[in-house]
Amino acid sequence: KVKDGDDVQEGDLLIRLDAAEITAQAAQAEAALDLARGNLVSVREVSMPKRMEQIRSSLQQAEIAFNNVKENYERMKKLYQEGIISEVEYEGTCSEYELRSSQYEAAQEQFRLEKEGQEKELAVLEAQARQAEAALQLVRTHLNETLITAPVSGTVSGVDINPGEMAAPGIPLVVINKLEAMQVSVNLTEKDVGRIGRGQKVDVLISALSAEPLEGEVQSISPVADPRTKTYGMKVLLPNEDGFIKGGMTAEVR
Predict the structure, then answer these.
(1) Fewer beta carbons within 10 angstroms: which end of the chain, N or C?
(2) 182: Cα separation from own chain's centroid
(3) Rounded to 5, what percent of the chain is helix, strand, coil?
(4) pTM for the whole thing?
């Protein structure tokens, strides 16, 4: 999207990578998320309420039957104690009471298990939906990474890739220079390094531009000498609002 010499702002699109495969993955992840959310809604709002209603109805029926038998059992027990009914009649009532009691307890346990099971099932479905959502977010992140934007504002000074070529990690694709302020690199001898300090104003002569020096400011001085040259590196900051100074020019610092 850019060529050498173009001015770009931070966030401008530089290169668009082929996103066909990732786009397909994003569509697949979206479908998986829709399916997971659909299953969650279907089970939570349709299947679970229906099952709970059936279990609750069975529990209520078992409770009603048990209460009816319980009343009859208590009445027959009193009659048996008073000698009004026979032992055979009383034992028949006891058997029916025990049957209805066990049925009621079984219905209560089934209701409890169904409720616990639905809570666990719902937790699993919610986790699956969150997992599908995270997978989609990851694919969308990869999709966004196919759009390479300018990390800083500046001027394009090198486009090192052409359409159809393979972009590889660690290999620069576009070079952007911030030209509104240039940095002059010079080396100081051990005789001079102690006489110059950071923030000091210095004259910078760029003979290719003008016979008059420009005013720069010492930005940094290395505290350690280069073992090969035995000199100390110094950086001088030089304003370049008009853009006349080009990278790679030769400068003399006084």
Answers:
(1) C
(2) 38
(3) 50, 20, 30
(4) 0.55
